[in-house]
Design goal:
Number of strands: 10
Strand order of the largest sheet: 1-6-5-4-3-2
Order of helices and strands: EHHEEEEEHEHEHEHE
Largest sheet: 6 strands, antiparallel
Strand content: 15-25%
Radius of gyration: 20 Å
Length: 221
Amino acid sequence: IFDKTGTLTYGAPKLTEQIMASGFEQKEVLTLVASLERYSKHPLARAILAEAESNKLELAETSNVSEPPGQGLRGTVSGRQVQVTSRTQLDANLPGIEQLPAVAGGLECVAVIDGRYAADLRFRDAPRSESSSFVRHLEPEHSFSRVLILSGDRESEVRYLADQVGISEIFAEKRPEEKLAIVRKETAAAKTLYVGDGINDAPSMLAATVGMAIGQNSDVT
């Protein structure tokens, strides 16, 4: 059983697509969003800031930064109200919401500016260069009968990664307690190896027959 982010991927998403709503310009939106996201520690925030830097954008003055439960990140940027959130947290009656594109593979966040839907920002977290070959060698070299991914990320992103590395069985959008229950169930049925990369994976690694941690340098310990 593989964790996804940071284990099979580098854990460093990159901004790959910016879909603007009518009335908004890409440079304008990226500047506003990046100015707000510099106050966030979320991995997608780092990707947004990296894109702003590569475009040599000058970040604007920001105030009143907050992150109310279920509403995403909010703040005032150059006098404009900016919110960065997920599509599931959007108000169905939000002006411009009809322009929100259909769900696609990958990660995303949604920008709302001055109370209007402004843009859909999409990201990809690339698989580690060795992930595919490592997965492929498990059955012939080590007699593994099943290989699966267990992740808290949304299904479209997990499926995209699974297709990249050659895994057909996935569990997506699982909370930590759900992950632990799945690992316990699989371990009760057969000898199970759990591979993860961080403290959040510790309970699942302990519950598996064998737990392995992958560090940032990709060495297995």
